[in-house]
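User: These chains co-purify. Model them together.
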Amino acid sequence: MTAAVSQHDPKASEVASRASDADVPLMEIRHLHKRFSLSGDFLEQLKFKGGKLIREQEYVHAINGIDLDIRRGEALCVVGESGCGKSTVARTVMGLLTPSQGEIRYAGQRIDNMSTKELLPYRRRMQMIFQNPYASLNPRMTIQQTLEEPIRLHHPDWSRERVRDQVRDVMDSVGIDPDWGPRFGHEFSGGQRQRIAIARALAVDPEFIVADEPISALDVSIQAQVLNLMMEAQQQRNLTYLFITHDLAVVEHVGTRVAVMYLGMVCEIAPTGTLFAKPRHPYTQALLSAIPRLEDDRPQHIRLQGEVPTPVNLPSGCVFHGRCPHANERCRKEVPRLIDVEDGARVACHGVEEGRL
Amino acid sequence: MRENVMSDTIVPGRWARFRDSYLLYSFKRDLIAQISLVIFALLIFAAVFAPWLAPANPYDLAQIDILASELPPFWIDGADPAYLMGTDAQGRDLLSTILYGARVSLIIGFGAVLMQAVIGVSFGLMAGYLGGRVDAFLMRLADIQLSFSTLMVAIIVGALVKAIFGGATFSEYAVPLLVLIIGLAEWPQYARTVRASVLAERSKEYVDAARVMGLKSRRIMFRHILPNTLSPIFVISTVQVANAIISEAALSFLGLGMPETHPSLGSLIKSGFDYIQSGSWWITLIPGAVLVILVLVINLLGDWLRDVLNPRLYKG
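Assistant: Joint model of the two components:
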């Protein structure tokens, strides 16, 4: 382990990469696909049909070809309803899942096919904050142990005092009293636990953080505190966020850019202001029209017909065509690609491309 | 210095945690558990300190007097006060032999369970955490192992060793052999229990957090997941100790366990069995009663532990 760390000295490579590729996006996701098998093992896939023994495999298509760039210093929010694949994107980016197809590059370096050992220097630079603070802390470890573990792993040469100082610093920075170190996770409230989980992510001084719905499990009164903490940390430490959420108010608050996902596809990606002022994709329009507003007593919700199709058998063409009021023959046949429109927005819609919408 | 200040002022220490724990609280309210623990502790104490507590050394041939054989225990006419529980057919003091025998039985019981636990926990962790082919392979292995009964495996291995190396070698290495046989035969119990718990733990986010940190699989398995699966391991361990002691007694009774020169409780029961018709019932019944009590208290303690560690199961 020591050897692995010293081989790719994280400091040196970090300096080099920061200097050289300031223009290269920190994280590039290219043609990412992820599908999960529903059919079990080989024996369960064999079936008799029409007197013949055939092998049948079914998949859930969680991500169907996503392209995303995450630029240094921004907070890219990914929004979408339940089951659209946002969390799968986060987990694939962090290497918790291996992509079925496609590439993930970090600072120009392909990371999706690396071994655990090769990935170790990157682990220090990218960290993750999880949704459920009640499950993301090991119940048998004290806070001190939880926070020391990543530091010791990534800095095996540090002295005990230095590790302890780092833990105190990081606990201070998230607003947790460093004297609480010997306590266990279950002795804290949800908000405090999430602060500890943030501290664990920050403990190794990462530059990129994936936050998978970090405030959805928290009480509303705590959500703003934790959100502000994350934004402060972003400013102080110059962090880049990939922020997964389904809360549009959060997006408006933290997001530099927003990517809207539907059924494993990105349908629109735009700077936050542009997206909220001028949503172009019919799905984004429907989504934004659903935000309750104080001033309008006659809401103009766009009502979509039907349900989200199952990700097992994807619809042909545009995944949204079944519910889209503007769909035509082309939408049913051809999968739309993201095209650039004005104000830095990109939309995957034939209607927008043709100027119908 | 700072640590002392912290543990004194805010954080309760280990002992304080134990004192306030539900474990101790429920123990204080459970009379059966208390009695069981006292008897179990006494038996362990007597077995561990047998060489000092026992009036005679049953392994020392010089101390055995064949003329004093088959003497009854003290409450029956014709007893010799020197032999409190009477003597067996070879003239060994029964009390001393039982103490030494309980020692052998407990060593084999705990040794076999330790072996089962080491194999079963590692296999269970690997099967549950790594999944896929490793899981399929290890669990099929467990299925195969479980399809043979413990006694059958033990009889085959025991008979083979006896046939190949001879009875003398078998007697010499009887204890480690029995540990090996019983340990190998019952590891799937552990593997299955651990695997089930690991599958539940693996999907929790703290395991993902450990993976994101970059920890190796082995460390995640043993440092993060294993401590969270300890409760069921403790519970089945108690049952398995009792089972292993019974298995050993059964094997010894069948003549495949401890030799009569170095008796466990099982071989004592066997050696007395031939004399039960001639009226010397104590040679079999007293060690039998000790065995039953030993296994019973372990099982009762295990039941209590299961109820404490898994309150949902208890309340239904």
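The longest strand of chain A covers residues 59-70.
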